[in-house]
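Record filed here:
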Amino acid sequence: MNRVVLDKDQYKLIPFELIEKEKRLEVVLAGENAEVEIVGLVIGKGSEEKSLEAYITHAAPNTRSNVNVRAVLRGKAKFDFRGNVRIEKGAKGADAYLRSDSLLFDDAKMGDDTPALEILEPDVKAGHAATIGKVDEQMLFYLMTRGLSRKQAEKLLVEGFVNPIKERLKRGAK
């Protein structure tokens, strides 16, 4: 497990590519104006089962967290994502967001995609979103009618899907 505690005015970008079977991240925003951004990719193939857990605690005022995960799954691969944000009493002005997006090929499936928001302070902003979708065969067909092989067309769709994460990682810390 990776545990990070951020004090007043600290910022941390936590990039990852989930290569191992599972990963657990724990972040405590302990100081005012602390901010964390967790950005990553999950690639699964064959019968791999991958799991990511992210636990973020907002324990001080005006803290920010942003979790953005994209998964590309092939074969019979499976991915579980559990994101938990807790905003403590007194963490006025906290801003938290969890997002996960998955692109599925073949018989791959998204397992448990459970965002949880535990909000103990009324003056905050918090949200979550998830998208899960199979590759659109009509989109692949269209690309193939333009001269691409199926493999090239799939690669192009995957590149377009993961590009926002790659671009964010290229920019690095603020």
Q: What stands out?
A: The first strand starts at residue 2 and ends at 6.
